[in-house]
Design brief:
The structure is a single chain. The protein has 153 residues and is α+β, with helices and mostly antiparallel strands. The chain has helices spanning 10-27, 49-60, 115-119, 122-142; strands at 3-5, 63-68, 80-85, 91-93, 111-113.
Length: 153
């Protein structure tokens, strides 16, 4: 499932979880991972936190948060981790599945980063554009955008 900090209505939680499983994990691959050598089909979120956080930001708004992975054994090579604070103030991490054995809970509090900050890295921009294109194609295909459930956030 996904990691969250703060209150989230059950309806919104179910919809976010469904989106993670059905859509976001279908939009990220080895080519969108910041760590393609360690990416696998068994762990599609691995190295994809920035692109997932940007897609969630684009869809819901709110803020993108970043924490350093320095000192987090097995994850330092990725440098940092990104997740979201929704407009209602709830923090959600739809790429938390990449962390094993409670590692996600060891991360420090996040610092706010802008889309411009993330997109200033050419490789992150390339990876985001690939995932973003897949996300919106799936959203159109599945016609999820029809219902405006974002108002609950």
């Amino acid at each position: 499932m996904f990691w969250q900090k703060g209150r989230l209505s059950a309806v919104v939680m179910v919809k976010l979880a469904a989106q993670q499983e059905a859509i976001l994990n279908s939009c990220v691959f080895r080519e969108t991972s910041a760590d393609p050598n360690n990416w696998s089909k068994d762990n599609p979120a691995h190295g994809n936190c920035a692109v997932i956080a940007m897609i969630i930001y684009e869809f819901y708004g709110g803020e993108i948060l970043r924490a350093s992975l320095k000192g987090i054994s097995g994850y330092e090579q990725m440098g940092s981790h990104y997740w979201n604070r929704l407009p209602c103030g709830t923090e959600v991490d739809l790429s938390a599945d990449q962390f094993k054995n409670g590692v996600r809970d060891l991360l420090p509090n996040g610092e706010v980063r802008t889309m411009e900050y993330l997109l200033s890295n050419a490789d992150t921009k390339r990876r985001f554009e690939i995932a973003q294109e897949r996300f919106w194609a799936l959203m159109r295909l599945l016609e999820i955008w029809r219902g405006d459930f974002r108002k609950d956030l």
